[in-house]
Amino acid sequence: MQLGMIGLGRMGNGMTERLRERGHDVKTYDPAVESRTAASLEELAAQLDAPRAFWMMIPAGKITEDTFQQLLSLAASGDTIVDGGNSNFRDSQRRYAEAQAKGIHFVDAGVSGGIWGLKVGFCLMVGGEDEPVQRLEPVFTALAPEDGYAHVGPSGAGHFVKMVHNGIEYGLMQAYAEGFEVMEHSEFDLDLHGISGIWRYGSVVRSWLLELLHDAFEEYGGKLEQIAPYVEDSGEGRWTIHEAIAENVPAPAIAASLFARFASRDEVNFSARVTAALRNQFGGHAIKTLTEEQR
Fold it and tell me: 60-105, pLDDT tens digit by residue?
């Protein structure tokens, strides 16, 4: 199947490679990447056969909005625009309505997999109308591992589910971070690298995140001294809490994990190092490192 991929960052590049490996014809545009097939969105549109499918894999916010509006002016009736970034689901619902008014399909695809997606596949949570989703299913199933793709609902549902997914991710990382901080401060001289290693096998807390934490200890040492205890948040945790409040649903673990990220920006603590290391391991998110003097 043919697809136009817009954005060749950590995720977009891996998705493009995975699709090409599975026989799909992917045209690409990213102004910052020389290996693109098109030098502009106009050229990308000209490289695709009707009905065209454009996949935006770019940061949520202004760049997504600007690109979406450009695509609306370039796309024809029957074309599909997919937003695979972490956009707010309410923005996706609005964009669906704007596209529909011009006879253009809009699909919101929540994508999880980080820098490992090329190898193990990307989990896909897709929202939108049946017709364009079904037409693009060969792309979705090629990107996802077995049983890792679902059409979760109408417009906005894909990004809503991904928002909650990321809120849960906040809570899971914070639980690991706090547990390892308790052990770090204990009276025992514990081998945290070794403990994270054995917990990967048979333990009820085993998970991919724990495997990544073990990898981080291996890369940075059991104390993670090189990693500054500063943890960013990219928005989805905040949105999840906003929706929980709007729905009168208690979400204390997710809320506390977000506040812990705020605290990391003012305090030096080991749990923040754990969370920062995990974000780097699964998503390739940048970490702040400390010099010898700062440690």
Answer: 999 999 999 999 999 999 999 999 999 999 999 999 999 999 999 9
Q: Residue 4 forms beta bridges with which residues?
A: 27, 54
- The answer to whether 220 and 226 are in contact (CB under 8 A) is yes
Taking only the tens place, the pLDDT of each residue in 13-24 is 999 999 999 999
- Residue whose pair of structure tokens reads 């695809």 in the numeric block: 109
Instruction: Tell me whether residue 223 is one of the annotated catalytic residues.
Output: no
- List 169, 187, 232, 293, catalytic entry: 169
Q: Is 169 a catalytic residue?
A: yes
Catalytic residue among 27, 162, 178, 236: 162
Q: How far is CA 207 from CA 197, 201, 210, in A?
A: 11, 9, 5
Return the exposure string of 214-240: e unless at least 16 CB atoms fall within 10 Å of the residue's CB, then b.
Answer: bbbbeebebebebbbbbbebebbbbbb
